[in-house]
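pasting for ref
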Amino acid sequence: MRMPTLPADLEAAVADPRSTERDLQVVLQRNLWVLGGTYHPMTATRRLVTGACHDIPLLLPDGTRHVVVPRRAAVPVVVERRGRTIVTEHVHRAVSQVTDYLTGVDELHPPWDDDTWITATVLIGFPAPGAEVVHRALRSFNSHLARIRVVTYRQLLDQAFSGRPGTTRPFS
């Protein structure tokens, strides 16, 4: 029996520094299983707010909407400043864009009026294996966010493979 492996197109897109956000979005949409088994693709509109389009809309079993926002993999996620490791402007910009989108949805569809409560995951960066300093900085950063979670592509792929028995881990 052949063991499942990372699809070649996903591996190539994440590892290629020239991959655009659109390249990553297309390949992720073909491989939604890496996002976890609790999500279902939404067939409804990708636009809940005029002028804003969310990238990969998903639905949780309880009806909560979730948006996955792929950003470039070939960007730095953390930087050293004043003796501390902090997230880069790339992460801040991505979170600001998602926050703006969520605010727009809330203004048009207050969560207490209907079922439009939305959470989001920002996928960004692809640090080297064993980059625990990156993951610690993101854990700290994420602890201040309520509806948005920032995850690196490495974390996403490692989590996808750790939850699937018999799979081979990518990028080891």
